[in-house]
Design goal:
The radius of gyration is 25 Å and the shape is elongated. The strands form 2 sheets. Strands 2-1-3 form a 3-stranded antiparallel sheet. A two-stranded antiparallel sheet has the order 4-5. A hairpin with a 5-residue loop joins strand 1 and strand 2. The chain has 1 helix and 5 strands; from the N terminus they run βββαββ. It is an alpha+beta fold. The N and C termini lie far apart (70 Å).
């Protein structure tokens, strides 16, 4: 059976600068208040930005884990932790 890949259309997040109403649509449109001063954001672009941020956070956490591991060892030898009295 063949797999059919269907690309979904982008959805835009719209915000009216006149009345601050926010809504989603398939394309830019005027606000219900009649204003055409509408800011648009592509949700696909927002998802791409979030994926890039997630990758950077993962890399940062990996670096932190590696640094902590290095601090716990001294070139492969376990460093003794100070004992509490």
């Amino acid at each position: 059976m063949d797999t059919i890949i269907c690309e979904l259309p982008d959805v835009v997040r719209l915000r009216c600068r006149a009345c601050d109403e926010i809504w989603a649509a398939l394309e830019e449109e005027i606000c219900r208040c009649g204003s055409s001063d509408v800011a648009t954001e592509s949700l696909n672009e927002i998802l791409r930005s979030l994926a890039q941020a997630e990758e950077r956070v993962d890399q940062l956490l990996y670096g932190i884990r590696e640094h902590v591991q290095y601090l716990r060892t001294e070139h492969g030898r376990l460093v003794r932790q100070p004992q509490r009295v």
